[in-house]
């Protein structure tokens, strides 16, 4: 959303949690009133007092007044919002991205936008950096997500499995047993699965519902010692995923 939070806060100092709640309210304004104070607090893993403190800091008498003021601000932002065509045109260059990949990214973005559950993001080694980056992008959008890497126990995944709506795994080789086991477990439990992997032979493609293929110029370099564009291209795919997420958010707000 093309909305400057500093204009809304008017110089008021907010904690990181309060800022996260404010961003969540702006991105989920259509459902915020129905969620109420308790629902908003729960969605952001915080307390109702945090939500009420945010309202008071912004100069509102309570949650209801804050909601209607923010709804007005969102309406003004939407009326002047235009999708960045220059950004999307980058992907229209010859062989920049296949239609199959683009459709997969749109599907993944739609599932992330629609789920009310946790988005679980997993990656190991170098791929964990990509996973962590996506997790941070989603968190600032107010999306509930968990980032996990090879240092975490399988229990982090298993103990949250019932609350996971989308599972996203990053694996350059697509052969990591830890990645494959979690992917298969998610599929068996009817969780929508997304896999970012190379565009060659990758077992990960066989066990996930939505595959994002990334060209790998050094597929035999298992230890990531040589220069490669794989990770930078993966970052590009992540940004396109976020762009498509905004597409769905904008359509919902304009409906």
Could you characterize the architecture of this molecule?
The protein is built from 11 helices and 5 strands; from the N terminus they run αααααααβαβαβαββα. It is of the alpha/beta class and 255 residues long. It folds into 2 domains: 75 residues, Winged helix-like DNA-binding domain superfamily/Winged helix DNA-binding domain (Arc Repressor Mutant, subunit A, Orthogonal Bundle), CATH 1.10.10; 170 residues, 3-Layer(aba) Sandwich (Rossmann fold). The protein has a 5-stranded parallel beta sheet.
Short account of what is shown:
The chain has 255 residues and is α/β, with parallel strands linked by helices. Helices cover 53% and strands 12% of the residues. The protein folds into 2 domains: 5-79, Winged helix-like DNA-binding domain superfamily/Winged helix DNA-binding domain (Arc Repressor Mutant, subunit A, Orthogonal Bundle), CATH 1.10.10.10; 85-254, Rossmann fold (3-Layer(aba) Sandwich).
The total beta strand count reads 5
Helix content: 40-55%
Order of helices and strands: HHHHHHHEHEHEHEEH
Any idea of the CATH topology of the largest domain?
Answer: Rossmann fold
Low-pLDDT stretches are none
* Whole-number total of structural domains: 2
Gross morphology is elongated
Gyration radius over CA: 20 Å
Instruction: Please state the second-level CATH architecture of the largest domain.
Output: 3-Layer(aba) Sandwich
Distance between the termini: 16 Å
The average pLDDT is 85
What is the CATH superfamily classification of the largest domain? Answer: Glucose-6-phosphate isomerase like protein, domain 1
């Amino acid at each position: 959303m093309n909305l400057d939070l500093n204009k809304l806060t008017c110089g008021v100092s907010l904690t990181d949690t309060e800022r996260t709640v404010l961003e969540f309210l702006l991105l989920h304004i259509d459902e915020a009133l129905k969620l109420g104070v308790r629902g908003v607090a729960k969605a952001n893993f915080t307390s109702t007092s945090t939500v009420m403190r945010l309202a008071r800091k912004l100069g509102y008498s309570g949650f209801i007044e804050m909601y209607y003021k923010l709804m007005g601000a969102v309406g003004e932002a939407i009326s002047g919002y235009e999708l960045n065509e220059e950004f999307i045109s980058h992907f229209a260059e010859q062989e920049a991205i296949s239609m199959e990949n683009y459709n997969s990214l749109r599907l993944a973005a739609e599932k992330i936008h629609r789920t009310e559950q946790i988005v679980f993001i997993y990656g190991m080694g170098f791929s964990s950096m990509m996973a962590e980056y996506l997790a941070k992008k989603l968190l600032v959008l107010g999306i509930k997500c968990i980032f996990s890497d090879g240092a975490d126990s399988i229990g982090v995944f298993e103990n949250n499995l019932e609350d996971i709506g989308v599972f996203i795994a990053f694996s350059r080789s697509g052969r990591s047993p830890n990645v494959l086991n979690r992917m298969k477990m998610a599929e068996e439990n009817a969780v929508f699965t997304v896999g970012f992997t190379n565009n060659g032979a990758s077992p990960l493609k066989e066990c996930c519902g939505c595959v994002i293929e990334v060209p790998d110029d050094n597929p035999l370099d298992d230890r990531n010692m040589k220069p490669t564009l794989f990770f930078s291209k993966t970052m590009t795919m992540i940004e396109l995923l976020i762009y498509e997420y905004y597409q769905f958010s904008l359509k919902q707000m304009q409906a």
